Amino acid sequence: MTSSLSHMKFTFIGAGSMAEAIIRGLITKGGVHGENIFVINRSNRARLEELRERYGIRSSVNELEKDDAIRTGHIVVLAFKPKDALEGLSKIKHLIRPEQLLVSVIAGLTIDTMQTLLDAADYSIVRTMPNTSSTIGLGVTGMSFSPNVTPAGRQLAVQMFESAGIVSTVEEPLLDTITGVSGSGPAYIYYMMEAMIQGGVQGGLEPEEARRLVVQTVLGAASMVQATGEDPADLRRKVTSPNGTTQAALETLDRHGFPEAVAKAVLRAAERAGELGAAISASVTSQTK
Ligand SMILES: NC(=O)C1=CN([C@@H]2O[C@H](COP(=O)(O)OP(=O)(O)OC[C@H]3O[C@@H](n4cnc5c(N)ncnc54)[C@H](O)[C@@H]3O)[C@@H](O)[C@H]2O)C=CC1
Ligand SMILES: O=C(O)[C@@H]1CCC=N1
Q: Could you tell me the pTM of the whole model?
């Protein structure tokens, strides 16, 4: 499976945390050699140097070499922020070819808008929504394809992100929901962890000890759901003794609207992904008028 990935040349445009998470997966699990990964960043040479030292990737600040890497990469990964999409795609449209696989991790940016920005509908575009847990191989990536991505292209894209965790292939509109669930999701869990640590410290624990207990509690809870296959609701009930401590805690969470707040947060993130996409689409429309 990994042999085909290992024969590919990758060009990353944007050298942020998401690019690094994917690169690490490709190298540690995907069998890809750092020599086959070229990374471009708009600024910040130190960041490129850091990635080069860490993963043995290639990079350059020379414009001709960067253009050549975009032209010759089998898989070109768009890993910049939504606000940079208009400029970023306009700059590469004369360099890329329909045979290349274009993989975007940009939140909200639709396949349709990418095709408009590239002035062609025949590019093979993979729109993805990964998350930062890809850094340690425990990522979740939502994925959709433009109609002309070949079965081989689809397989490569799935392999690419499976080297960093699990992949869920969906119809494109659902990618915004996946953004709300798993793209932004790690932040909700970290927020919960921060609050649990704070509670422990308020109750007298040393911060380091509170952190250690919370990390293991979250790890254990997620692993229990995975290992037993039971519903989170059933596992929750097993912790909750009638009139016990957990019931008292959950009642407090309910009084503060916890379940509704979390579900609303997921949907608001999904809605925000749509807004980010719409803003790019609107700026494209106003530019082409
Ligand atoms: N951070 C996260 O948890 C996730 C982020 N994403 C998406 O990943 C994308 C990147 O996010 P991060 O890595 O967090 O951002 P980041 O800000 O850490 O990195 C983006 C990098 O791209 C560079 N850049 C911008 N325009 C460029 C251009 N035209 N050419 C070359 N380099 C350019 C910037 O200088 C910056 O170093 C975003 O679109 C975001 O929506 C997707 C899933 C999860
Ligand atoms: O906050 C964001 O916009 C990005 C997309 C999903 C996670 N981080």
A: 0.94
